[in-house]
């Protein structure tokens, strides 16, 4: 209850007004931080909306997009930051070093920007092997080279043994937004088509297979990859892309729900059109998961005007990271703020935002 909450910083001049929050209120139900607050679902949204946004409120932050877009001098810039706490540090298809680059590069790409420079901060736990740190650093450097971005500055801190879980990494990045490009969730409109760049749910299942020691009959390899080249190929078709989003924590379902709410539109998916690889489908069936909620690290969602849909889809399929791109649904005027999917049996089910995360610490 609100009266039982103890603020951790008594010097904070204007503590959050717990009594002013509205339902659902996961933060109010949990006076302490729980794992669900970092899962990308409703609890994360509540934490951001009711604690951080009031503390940091400003017009640039207000958009709450993957990267902030603003003008500095004559340049229109995108700026983003991300922190990486994945376990295990190495997994099929990548490592925390690859994620640290690709996660920030992709966040910038979702506003149409080509990442130019990254910062990199390492938080190391006392006792971690230097060979492990060296391997991660090599992966990070290789990923930066592949993405065409420069690591321009960095920082290193060491915490006591037992307080850091090996290695944490923070990266921040900046890039230029091309003239005429206006990509943001509020631009989704009824009649627009929804595209996905490839098979979904791969990263989350790859992490789970290693972390839990579960074999699904074949190795599932993470899709971790930089998406800036794919976005450039799409912008070469038209610079009037309405929305881009990389569906990481919370998967496709969470990203589309965020877009639907921001734009005030409904989104209808066709279940049979969703590109779910057999290994992911089998793993989700075995574990009782829905592929729509499983994390991705090398896929994007695009919402474009219907008249541009075929051309954008062709441009995506011409790029190696978009070879399996597909149209999976459309934006509609009905049920604004809600995502539904049409099943193979002709029924319609609501695809809601999860409370927390099916599998925490996947990035």
From TrEMBL:
It comes from Kribbella steppae. NCBIfam families: hypE. Residues 190-335 form the PurM-like C-terminal domain. This is Hydrogenase expression/formation protein HypE. Residues 1-21 are annotated as: Disordered. PANTHER family: CARBAMOYL DEHYDRATASE HYPE, HYDROGENASE ISOENZYMES FORMATION PROTEIN HYPE. Signal peptide: none annotated. Residues 66-177 form the PurM-like N-terminal domain. One of its GO terms (biological process) is protein maturation. Belongs to the HypE family. Pfam families: AIRS (PF00586), AIRS_C (PF02769).
